[in-house]
Amino acid sequence: MSELLGGSAGERQCVVMKFGGTSVEDAAAIRRLCQIVKGRLRHRQVAVVSALAAVTDQLFAAGRTAAEGKLETALAIVRDIQERHLRIAGELLGSDEGDLFFKDSVHDFRAAVALLRSISAARDFSLRAQDHLLSMGEHFSSKLVRAALVRNGLEAVWVDAKECIITDAAHTRATPLCDETNRRLQILLAPLLQADRIPVLGGFAGSTLDGIPTTLGRGGSDFSAAIVGAGLHAKKIEIWTDVDGVMTTDPDLCSEAQRVSRMSFEEAAELAYFGAKVLHPATLLPARRQNIPVWVLNSRNPGGAGTEICGHSRDEGRVKALSVKRGVAVVDVEPLRWLAPELLREVCEVFENHQHTLDLLSASRGSLSLLVTSIASLPAIAEELKGLASVRWENHKALVCLVGEKIRRRPEVASQVFRAIADIDVRMICQGASERSISFLVDESRAEESVQRLHKLFFSEARPGPPVARHALCQSGGTW
Fold first, then answer.
1. Which of 105, 276, 317, 343 counts the most CB atoms within 10 A of its CB?
2. How far apart are the first and last CA of the chain?
3. What is the CATH code of the structural domain delimited by 33-234?
């Protein structure tokens, strides 16, 4: 059956469509979603839905507030979320569908209230409780989208994502168990697709083999779509958001930013790693393994060309995009003895124990420099390393990265970069770990200027594209 869904001759092929929070944020957005789905009826479709815009943050705030003993404030947040869903449902649904949705939502929101009460009683918003509460946002929104699709005459069926995406027990950052997940997808979704029905499920959420709710991490709805697409051998995966595609840089930094028409999986992954808000960093792995193209498209401009992310890129040796990662600190570790491999391992283990992700590492015989995105644990890390090394750090740095297939093989690219920013103090230049990136560290106050100069250098002669949305998928900061 998977071969059939993947597109045997003469058969309709499967497309997995993920709709982000801004693509389901209100009644108008969900109406657009319904029209997009209607326009793709030549395909067998699966819809993966994020929580309504800002709901995940609200649920987290409710859980944290409940754990602080402020239960009534937490319950008020959940009531606001419920009222928002019911208000949108009132705009979208007829009386019959509206009544059914209302009855179902009462049950679901009672479950959220009960969970908040237990969090308040325990005075603990544990990682397990976070997964349970935050996954409810996608649960609410996917049921609303399914009802709207039915109202529009489509054969849509709600499927509980927790029954499909099976993971380990690493709460807030769970890893899918691929074999079991693929088996569930074939059992639960493939028959619906064969019957020309449209499965609708929330993203971000999964469960352990024992049925305990987990999540794939913030932004995990993208990852969910890729997992589903790979498991069903889909023809393509579409990520519907509120921008025209991946941009050459963040338009808030450079108004001349242009849409990138096509890039490779590796280029997109590199951008994600260096802070660009392209896709959730894990999204591309299942798609790349199955060689399934991923399209980034704008639900507010569904006729737009978007960006295709696929196995092979055009224009090797050319800079494809620039990203900036703000809020970076550079940590200098100076050992009290020579920097032996054993000490390097110990330093990395200490950072890992404090849940610090290291973005870059530069070592010499007598010192070690690391980049981190939080300084909260650095005093404790310095204390733990006392006697082995001295630790000091500088805040308010930004990591600027240029990405393009095989740009490392073009030495003139690096020389052009550093001529363009010769008067800007640059630290920790990294060229060599990857063929696809050149990165360097500057003060945050000079990041925007650096990007504007480099964008002019590498893209000023490119043919301008159509006007783009102001918030692009090549920016850092905020939530996924």
1. 276
2. 34
3. 3.40.1160.10
